[in-house]
Amino acid sequence: MLKVRRRFSGITQCLVIQGHRVSMNNLNDPPGWNIRPDQQGGGDSNKWNYALIVPMLGLAAFRWIWTKESQKEIGEVKADYDRDLQAVSKDLETKYREALTESRRAAAHVELQLEKERQRAKGYRQALLSQSQQLLEERKQLQQERDTLEEEKLRETEWQLKATAVLGEFEEELVKRQSALCSVLLPRRRRLAMERGLLIRAANEPLATELNMESDLKDIFKNDRYCADLLNTDKRKNGSLMWLYLRFWQLQVTLEKHRRVQESLQGVKPNLK
Prior knowledge:
Blueprint: E1 12-17, E2 20-26, H1 50-182, H2 188-204, H3 206-210, H4 213-223, H5 241-265
Antiparallel strand pairs: 1-2
Helix pairs in contact: 1-2, 1-5, 2-4, 4-5
InterPro entries: CCDC127
Protein name: Coiled-coil domain-containing protein 127
Coiled coil: 100-155
């Protein structure tokens, strides 16, 4: 270990190396400024001279300065590192909070959208259920209307058959009345009795009343005098006006049937008789 101690006393400067005191220079004795081996009494100290000690002193000073500068730089680097670490930590914390806030906002938005979809799906289910119930009700109503329509059609068919039968009976009685008119053998009172019977039935028969047949029969009895030739044996060839009225009544029955069917389709129940 090298220990250096400088002492300035006047113009003398000494160097102590490993316990030996060595005179470095003497400013009052220029020729003796350098250390001479013959003046030091031999030993290891003879190897040292002024030119060797100066670099060692410079090296020690450089080491001390370098150590101080290194410590200063280390302190500055550490301070910079601490500041950077604090800034990075603060920035990371800020980004973490922003990311957390954004994540919560996104989660809230997704939850809101999910709730909307749930409500929409619920609305769809309710709409489908309501529509299904409505379809069932409509199907039930259509079936009822179909059954009602079938019943109405059956009634109208029955009514038409009945009306046709009634007209057939009037036709048969009119043929007999016209035959009595054209016969020279049957008395007049027989024909008049037939006419009174037809008028009474026309007044009491609902279909005849609806077709206003009573007044038409009076017109026939008054104006239909047509008879076939004397050798005719077909009673249906007698009469002219009565056949026109019979066709007219049949057309009225057909029209009345269509009117009743139309009223049934429109939901208006016909006045069946």
